[in-house]
Specification:
Mean pLDDT: 86
Strand content: 15-25%
Order of helices and strands: EHEEHHHEEHEHHEEEHEEEHHEEEEHH
Strand order of the largest sheet: 5-4-6-1-7-10-2-11
Radius of gyration: 21 Å
CATH class of the domain at 47-352: Alpha Beta
CATH superfamily of the domain at 47-352: Alkaline Phosphatase, subunit A
Largest sheet: 8 strands, mixed
CATH architecture of the domain at 47-352: 3-Layer(aba) Sandwich
Distance between the termini: 35 Å
Helix content: 25-40%
CATH topology of the domain at 47-352: Alkaline Phosphatase, subunit A
C-alpha cells in the first residue's frame, strides 16, 4: 500500500573486509569502554555523523517528498538545521567519503577511482577530535571505504562489517546499527564520543526486508515494460529508505536513553544520490546531474541551537569537517580545503558565496562540474564537450545550453581551474585491485 503525507594508540583496530559467501569471516564485537557510575553526559558534545549511502534528498519528507519514507528523520530535522544545496565530491562513494572525513577536495586526497587509495598525511576529522579529547569510533559495511583503501586509520576503533555475497544490504545495516547502539551504551561518561556510522541501504540492488517491500508499491503499474521496471525499482528504493529511517531511529533512541542526545552534534548526510532514468541512466556513478548530486544534509547543533532553520546557499562536502570542529570550538587544520558553515547557521560572521566543484572519474567516465545557486556547468572530458544549465528555470537540468549564458564563462573558468589541479593518473595511485576487491565492486555495480 502506498502511504502519502504532504589504531591506533593502544586501541584494538577491528578490520573485516567485505567478503563473498565462500569466505569465512570472524567479526569482532563492538569494543567496550569502561563507564563511570555517574549518569551525567560529558560537558563537551558527542559527535554523530550518520551517513546513509545513495540517499536522494528529494525522497525524504523533510525535503517535501509526498510519500512517508522518513518519519524519524523528519522528526529529527525539527531539532536541526536543513541544508538544501550541499554538493558531494562525486556521484560515487569513495571520493565523497574521503572528502567528508578529511575536509579536503579530491585533488588533495587523490581517491578518485576504483584503484585509488586515500593519501597519507592528510588532515583528518577523527584525528583532530581525538587530539581534542574525543573517543573516535567508525563503523561501516561499505567495502569501498575500508582500511585496504586507506580509510579508518585515524580512528581509535574502525569496524568493517562484512558483506558476504548475496547478503541483502539491509541485513548488514542492522549489524552496523547494532554496533553503533552498543558503542553509545558503552561510551565513557568522562569523555565525549565521535561516532561515524555508514550504512549502505538504499544502495542498489534494492532488497528491502519483507515487511517493507510493499510499503510504496503501487497497486497497478501504468506504462511500458521498461517504465514499469523503473517504477518498481523506485518503490523498492523508497522501501529501503523507510527501513534505513527505522535504523536511524535506533541510534537516536540510544542517545536519548544514555542522556546524550540533547547536547550532541548530530549530522545526517549522504555521499551521493541515485538516478531512475531522469538522464537516461540507472543508479549512480554515471553523471554529475541533479539526481546523483542532490543529497540531504541535516545538522543538529548542541542544545538544538537554531532548530528549524533552512540554508539554501551552495556548500560543499569539504565544508562538513571544518564545520564540526568550529561548532565544538576546536581549531580547523589549515590544510583543510573546506570552510566552516557556522556563519550560515548562526547568521553571525560572513560566508562569501563560492561555486561548488565535483568530479567523476571512474572507468571510462571523466566529467567535472561547477555550480552556483543559479547556474551549473558540466564538462565531459572524453567527449570534449561542455554544457550550462539555468537552475532557476531548469532545476532538474533537462535542457542543456551549448552556449554560455551571462556569467557562464566565469563559471567555466572556475571549473577548469579546479580540474587542472594535479591528481595522479588513473590507476597509478595504488596497487591494482585484488580479485576480492574486484568482486566486491562488481557486486555493488561499480564494475
Amino acid at each position: 500500500m502506498v502511504r502519502y503525507r504532504h589504531n591506533r594508540k593502544g586501541a584494538l583496530v577491528v578490520s573485516v573486509a567485505c567478503v563473498t559467501a565462500l569466505l569465512v569471516v570472524c567479526a569482532c564485537s563492538c569494543p567496550s569502554a569502561p563507564g563511570a557510575t555517574t549518569s551525567e553526559a560529558p560537558a563537551r558534545s558527542d559527535v554523530i555523523v550518520y551517513l546513509i549511502d545513495t540517499l536522494r534528498q528529494d525522497h525524504l519528507g523533510c525535503y517535501y517528498y509526498p510519500l512517508d519514507t522518513s518519519p524519524h528523520i523528519d522528526k529529527f530535522s525539527e531539532d536541526a538545521v536543513r541544508f538544501f544545496s550541499l554538493i558531494p565530491m562525486s556521484s560515487w562513494t569513495r571520493p565523497s567519503i574521503a572528502t567528508l572525513l578529511t575536509g579536503v577536495m579530491d585533488y588533495t586526497h587523490h581517491a578518485l577511482s576504483h584503484e585509488d587509495h586515500l593519501r597519507e598525511g592528510l588532515p583528518s576529522l577523527a584525528k583532530a577530535l581525538e587530539q581534542g579529547g574525543w573517543t573516535t569510533h567508525g563503523i561501516t559495511d561499505s567495502c569501498v571505504v575500508t582500511q585496504a583503501f586507506g580509510f579508518g586509520k585515524d580512528f581509535q576503533w574502525y569496524e568493517e562489517v562484512p558483506l558476504p555475497n548475496n547478503l541483502p544490504l539491509p541485513e548488514a545495516d542492522v549489524d552496523v546499527v547494532g554496533r553503533a547502539v552498543a558503542a553509545i551504551a558503552n561510551a565513557q561518561r568522562t569523555s565525549p564520543l565521535f561516532l561515524y556510522v555508514h550504512v549502505m541501504a538504499p544502495h542498489r540492488d534494492y532488497v528491502p526486508p519483507p515487511e517493507y517491500r510493499d510499503m510504496f508499491m503501487p497497486e497497478k503499474f501504468v506504462g511500458t515494460k521498461s517504465q514499469t521496471r523503473v517504477m518498481r525499482d523506485m518503490a523498492l528504493y523508497d522501501a529501503e529508505i523507510r527501513f534505513s529511517d527505522d535504523q536511524f531511529a535506533r541510534v537516536i533512541q540510544a542517545l536519548k536513553d544514555a542522556g546524550r542526545y540533547d547536547n550532541a552534534l548530530i549530522i545526517v548526510v549522504a555521499d551521493h544520490g541515485e538516478q531512475f532514468m531522469e538522464h537516461g541512466e540507472l543508479a549512480h556513478a554515471n553523471s554529475l546531474h541533479y539526481h546523483e548530486l542532490k543529497v540531504p544534509f541535516i545538522v543538529k547543533l548542541p542544545g538544538n541551537a537554531h532548530a528549524g532553520s533552512e540554508v539554501r546557499q551552495i556548500v560543499q562536502m569539504a565544508d562538513v569537517a571544518p564545520t564540526i570542529l568550529d561548532a565544538l570550538g576546536l581549531e580547523i587544520p589549515v590544510q583543510m580545503d573546506g570552510r566552516s558553515l557556522m556563519p550560515l547557521m548562526t547568521l553571525e560572521g560572513t560566508f562569501p558565496p563560492l561555486p561548488a566543484f565535483a568530479r567523476l572519474r571512474i572507468d571510462d567516465r571523466h566529467l567535472y562540474m561547477a555550480q552556483t545557486l543559479d547556474m551549473k556547468y558540466i564538462y565531459d572530458v572524453a567527449r570534449q564537450q561542455g554544457f550550462w544549465y539555468d537552475l532557476q528555470e531548469d532545476e532538474l537540468e533537462l535542457r542543456p545550453m551549448s552556449h554560455p549564458p551571462e556569467g557562464g564563462e566565469a563559471l567555466r573558468t572556475f571549473a577548469e581551474e579546479q580540474a587542472a589541479k594535479p591528481v595522479p593518473e588513473k590507476g597509478t595511485a595504488s596497487p591494482p585491485l585484488t580479485e576480492l576487491q574486484t568482486e566486491q565492486l562488481e557486486a555493488l555495480g561499480y564494475l
